[in-house]
Amino acid sequence: MTLAHGLHDFLAVTEPVGARVLVVEGWLGPHELNEAAKTFQAGGYQRVLTTGGPIHGWPERGGTFAEFAADYLKTRGVPPGAVTAVPSPMTPQDHTYYSALMVREWAKRSGVTLEALDVFSQDTHARRSRYLYRLALGPKVKVGIYSSPADEYDPDRWWASRVGLREVGRQAAGFAYVACCFRPPQ
Length: 186
What we know:
By secondary structure, the chain is an alpha/beta fold. Helix content is 43%, strand content 15%.
């Protein structure tokens, strides 16, 4: 396996832990949200939590990515009673980390003991999402991950595509930053 191929596979990790709760990052696009709905239905999950902060740039839409994703998943066959939107506040950075903190706070408020959860993320963002959820939730919560399949480039030849090169490069830099330099805000 070449280093280039290995980089994509390293970032786009799928390692669920068999949890009953699936967390779906609400900023995902229709392709990824459709895959998340299929994962929920096939995975034996009892609940799906959608995350994300305010939708900016779409004034006519309003609301949060968490609410938008929750509504979308309901239209894709996820039972409405199984879906909970867990919105995050507007933050200038560290969106995934704050989403994980909001999941932790939702569990406390709801009286839910989170022992394990699986996070559904976008392709090469998956490893960073899992890392940040583990950091926010602590060592007592097992965090699994699903990586949605890439739909805009060939993951086996990502370096041969402008989109693949941009995405893998951006996500590799993002993961390197959180792994070496990110410190949770006080």
